[in-house]
Design a protein that fits this description.
about 325 residues; alpha/beta; TIM Barrel; two-stranded antiparallel ribbon; 10 strands
C-alpha cells in the first residue's frame, strides 16, 4: 500500500480509504468485520464512516472491529454530521446543537475517545459558518475530534471557512471529500485547484459512479434488483445511458489489457493530480480484493489521454453532485 500526505495535516494516509456505508446494510456484520480486518492487513489505514450510514450501524460495526482487533490507534477513523437523524428539526445541519450532539453519539457507537477527522457532510446554508467553526473548535479543544474537514462543499464556501478560521483562530479544514469518477469530472474545474492552492487533501467518493463503471447496469431504465439506484431517486438520477455506454468502452479496454474494469476505474482516479485517497465501498471480501488490485495498475500518459477522449477534463455525463443542492447541470 502506498501513502500520501493529507493536506495541511501532515498525516500519511493510504491511497485507498475503506468506506463503510454498506456495513450493517447490504453487507452483514460478520462479513463487515472480516473486511475491516482484511483491509487493515492490506495496509489501508483510513476508515471512512458517518453517523447516518445504516442508521448508525456502520459506526457500531467499525467500533466493534477496532475494539476486537486492538488496532484503533493504528488507523485514522472519520465520521460526519449534517444529514437528518430524526424527525426533530434540530437533529440536522451544521448548527452547534447538532454537531456536538452528533459527535458525542458517534463516539459512543465507535467505542472510542476521539474521532481523527470529523467531516461536515454537506454545507449548511441556514447556519453561519462562524457558528459551525466555533462548535468544531469546541470539540477539538476537548479532544472529541483531532482534525476537521468538509464534504461536497462549493470551493468558495470552503475558502470562506478558511478565512473565518484565520480571523478567529479556529482549526482549519484539512481536506475536502467530493464525488469524483470518470463520468463526473467537475471537481477539476474549481475544487481541485482550490485544494492545491490552500493545501487541502482530496478524499474522493463514488469511484465506480455508483456501479456503472463496474458494469452493473444495462440501461438507465433497467435497474438491477437491490441496486442502490432502486433505493432513492437521487441514486437513480445518476444512472445515464451515456454513462453506461462509456463504461462499456472502459470494460472493453480493460479486457484487452487483462484488467478488471473496477480496479482500472479506481486506478484512473489515483493517477489524477492532487488526489490523496479514493474511498472504496466493497460489499464482499472478493470485491475488496478487486479494488485493492487498483494499486498495481500503472497508466501511462497515453493511457490517461485515452480516458480524456471518453469524458473530457472538467465535464460530466452523470450528475454525482445531485445530493448537494448547489452544483446544477448546465
Amino acid at each position: 500500500m502506498k501513502y500520501r500526505r493529507l493536506g495541511r495535516s501532515g498525516l500519511m494516509v493510504s491511497e485507498l480509504t475503506l468506506g463503510t456505508m454498506n456495513f450493517g446494510g447490504p453487507t452483514d456484520e460478520a462479513t463487515s468485520l472480516l473486511m475491516i480486518d482484511k483491509a487493515l492487513d492490506c495496509g489501508i489505514n483510513f476508515l471512512d464512516c458517518a453517523n447516518v450510514y445504516a442508521e448508525g450501524r456502520s459506526e457500531k460495526i467499525l467500533g466493534k472491529a477496532l475494539k476486537r482487533n486492538g488496532k484503533r490507534h493504528e488507523v485514522l477513523v472519520t465520521s460526519k454530521a449534517f444529514l437528518p437523524t430524526s424527525e426533530r428539526p434540530n437533529d440536522r445541519g451544521n448548527n452547534r446543537h447538532n454537531l456536538i450532539n452528533s459527535c458525542i453519539k458517534s463516539l459512543k457507537r465507535l467505542q472510542t475517545d476521539y474521532i481523527d477527522i470529523f467531516f461536515l457532510h454537506r454545507t449548511d446554508w441556514n447556519t453561519p459558518q462562524e457558528e459551525t467553526l466555533s462548535a468544531l473548535n469546541y470539540m477539538v479543544d476537548r479532544g472529541y475530534i483531532r482534525y476537521i474537514a468538509c464534504s461536497t462543499h462549493p470551493a468558495w464556501r470552503t475558502v470562506e471557512a478558511l478565512h473565518i478560521a484565520d480571523r478567529k483562530g479556529y482549526p482549519k479544514f484539512v481536506c475536502e471529500q467530493p464525488p469524483y469518477n470518470l463520468l463526473d469530472r467537475r471537481i477539476e474545474n474549481e475544487i481541485v485547484p482550490m485544494c492545491q492552492e490552500y493545501d487541502l487533501g482530496i478524499i474522493t467518493w463514488s469511484p465506480l459512479a455508483q456501479g456503472v463503471l463496474a458494469g452493473r447496469y444495462r440501461t438507465a431504465d433497467d435497474l438491477p434488483i437491490n441496486s442502490r439506484a432502486t433505493q432513492k431517486s437521487i441514486y437513480a438520477e445518476r444512472i445515464t445511458d451515456v454513462g453506461i455506454k462509456i463504461a462499456r468502452r472502459v470494460r472493453d479496454w480493460a479486457k484487452e489489457k487483462d484488467l478488471s474494469p473496477t480496479a482500472l476505474s479506481v486506478s484512473w482516479i489515483i493517477h489524477q493530480p492532487a488526489i490523496t485517497s479514493v474511498i472504496i465501498g466493497p460489499c464482499s471480501p472478493e470485491h475488496l480484493d478487486d479494488l485493492v488490485a487498483s494499486q498495481d495498475i500503472h497508466l501511462s500518459p497515453e493511457n490517461l489521454a485515452w480516458f480524456d477522449t471518453l469524458v473530457p477534463p472538467g465535464t460530466f455525463v452523470s450528475d454525482h453532485f445531485n445530493s448537494a443542492g448547489w452544483q446544477r447541470p448546465a
